[in-house]
Design brief:
The chain has 382 residues and is of the alpha/beta class. 41% of the residues lie in helices and 16% in strands. The longest helix is centred in the last third of the chain and has 26 residues, at 275-300. The termini are far apart. The relative contact order is 0.17. GO terms for molecular function: transaminase activity.
Length: 382
């Protein structure tokens, strides 16, 4: 049986392939975006886990929009306006998929930064969107390019990760956030804000969400994978009710609802008195690992490489001299370190800058030191 044309156009995830290769115990992986298992707040979840046996109602079919106690909690926690609502998804990735299926017709234009999150490109590729890119600066998207794009291309939506961008780690400035919101309102472009790393800030002041400046023109995706556990597979989508109603209709046909026991477990975790302390502990751990990696990279990388600091998230982006980055990644893998080369973060046909994405959250300080030495040794041979 022939697969659908939309699927034929979507490449398999290079990251999943390289993660499989990186499972070799002799390879130190800087490739994935994996949180450290030691950060999973299992102790904080134990009271709710033990009490699930006394909650038979959560093992029944549930509401498509989500577990009501969790939705009520999140509505208050996020201080949603009266015009807005929340819905629970099976990971924030499902939220992105629902948005694409609800709103994007084949050929519709979707704007993304280049480079951008691979999973988003796959989702929009499956609905046969026309992905239009704008370049990225250290403050966020190139605003002149973005306005020109909005004016000439007339896109339906702009997807972005403003807080600790995947893959570059860039955090948009306040001025950029305000200007992007202003442009989305002016040109009637829906802003799809993906915020999976927002809580992982380890330096600097937290900035408002972009969607705070254009609440009637935006949909916000949040994830609990990085601050609770990826295995829970719980994300939340918020936006004005009229934006979310089509998503609920599609989710009903997709999986009826996300796991209710997992939603109840998350609800108990979020209410725990020590949850904020838990997030602070994660940020401190990741900052210590980032500091080790950054110092080693500064010391060991060839001067031809460009390295920029980040204030949070999970990734460092290293620009390198022009080369075949896929071949370089294979060479690095053979030398015991796994990385992700830049082309996987660009749509087909884009102009690609040679770079590597490095993850610092799932390796020990000693492993990071060894991995950077292996990386630098190979780069010095370019």
């Amino acid at each position: 049986m022939e697969i659908a044309q939309s699927l034929q156009q979507v490449k398999s995830s290079y990251i999943r392939e390289i993660l499989a290769a990186a499972s070799d115990k002799n390879v130190i992986s800087l490739a994935g975006g994996l949180p450290d298992e030691k950060t999973f707040p299992i102790d904080l979840m134990k009271p709710t886990l033990e009490n699930l046996a006394n909650m038979p109602e959560v093992f029944q079919y549930g509401s498509t929009a989500g577990y009501t106690p969790l939705l009520d909690f999140l509505s208050d926690y996020f201080q949603l306006p009266e015009t807005h609502t929340a819905m629970i998804t099976t990971g924030s990735q499902q939220g992105l998929d629902l948005i694409a299926r609800a709103y994007v017709n084949p050929g519709d234009k979707v704007v993304m930064e280049a480079p951008s999150y691979l999973g988003a490109m796959q989702v929009f590729g499956l609905v046969q969107a026309n992905i239009v890119t704008v370049s990225q600066t250290e403050f966020g998207p190139n605003l002149e390019e973005l306005e020109r794009c909005f004016e000439t291309e007339k896109p339906k939506m702009f997807y972005a990760v403003p807080d600790f961008h995947n893959p570059t780690g860039v955090c948009w400035s306040l001025e950029t956030r305000q200007k992007v919101a202003e442009l989305c309102i002016q040109y009637d472009v829906a802003f799809i804000e993906d915020a999976p790393y927002r809580e992982l800030r380890f330096s600097g002041e937290a900035l408002p969400l972009v969607s705070d400046f254009c609440p009637q023109n935006s949909i916000l995706l949040r994830s609990f994978s990085k601050i609770a556990s990826p295995g829970l597979r719980i994300g939340v989508v918020t936006g004005k009710t009229s934006y979310l109603e089509p998503l609920i209709k599609i989710k009903q046909g997709a999986d009826l609802h996300s796991s209710v026991p997992m939603q109840a477990l998350l609800h108990g975790l979020l209410k725990h008195d020590n949850f904020e302390t838990h997030i602070n502990t994660i940020c401190e751990l990741y900052k210590s690992r980032y500091d080790v990696m950054y110092a080693e990279l500064e010391q060991r990388l060839p001067t031809s490489c460009v390295l920029k600091p980040v204030n949070g998230g999970m990734f460092v982006w290293v620009e390198i001299p022009e080369c075949d980055t896929f071949e370089l990644a294979k060479t690095l893998l053979a030398n015991g370190v796994a990385v992700v080369p830049s082309p996987v973060f660009y749509p087909e046909g884009s102009e690609v800058k040679a770079a590597l994405r490095l993850n610092f959250t799932n390796a020990t300080p000693d492993e990071l030191r060894v991995a950077v030495k292996r990386l630098a040794d190979v780069l010095h041979m370019l």
